[in-house]
Amino acid sequence: GKAPAAPALDEEDMTEELKERVLAVMIDAFDNLNPIEVERKLEIIWSQGPDGGPNKNTLRSLVALTSQVEGIAKASRDRWNNPGADFEDLLTALQVARSRVRMYGKDAEYYDPDSFMSWMNPDLNPRVQDKAGPKWPKWPWQSD
């Protein structure tokens, strides 16, 4: 399935209710992590605002995926009482959505100074000059 389009999201849309919904979906997707660690990831992403993330769409994408997961849950409940109902398509859609939630949730590491991945963030690593990546010093035998 195609990834849901990241919705328009303004600072005033960033309510506690929305944050709790996103957190619930993230905790489910990051079932290998302690919920406190997952909450820290969301706090880091949330603090960057609607345009946070390396590609400026992390929070907006997480909001879209939250709505998608909630829609999958509703479709599952709607089918529950239908004898012989097929759930395979919903299971596949949920697996894909959870994978995407993990992918965007890991963007928190870009802003976390304790994370290995923060080396890509020019605000945390002075060696990163532009989006092309870090500018490492040349070895003595390398020429320009």
Task: Please give a structural write-up.
The protein is mainly α. The protein has helices spanning 16-29, 35-47, 58-79, 88-105, 108-111; strands spanning 128-130, 133-134. The chain has a two-stranded antiparallel sheet with strand order 1-2. Helix 1 (16-29) packs across helix 4. The mean pLDDT is 84.
Q: What key phrases describe this protein's structure?
A:
mainly alpha; two-stranded antiparallel sheet; single chain; 144 residues; elongated
Extended strand count: 2
Strand order of the largest sheet: 1-2
The N- and C-terminal alpha carbons lie at a distance of 45 Å
Q: Globular, elongated, flat, extended or rod-shaped: what is the shape?
A: elongated
Helix and strand layout, with pairings?
Blueprint: H1 16-29, H2 35-47, H3 58-79, H4 88-105, H5 108-111, E1 128-130, E2 133-134
Antiparallel strand pairs: 1-2
Helix pairs in contact: 1-2, 1-3, 1-4, 3-4
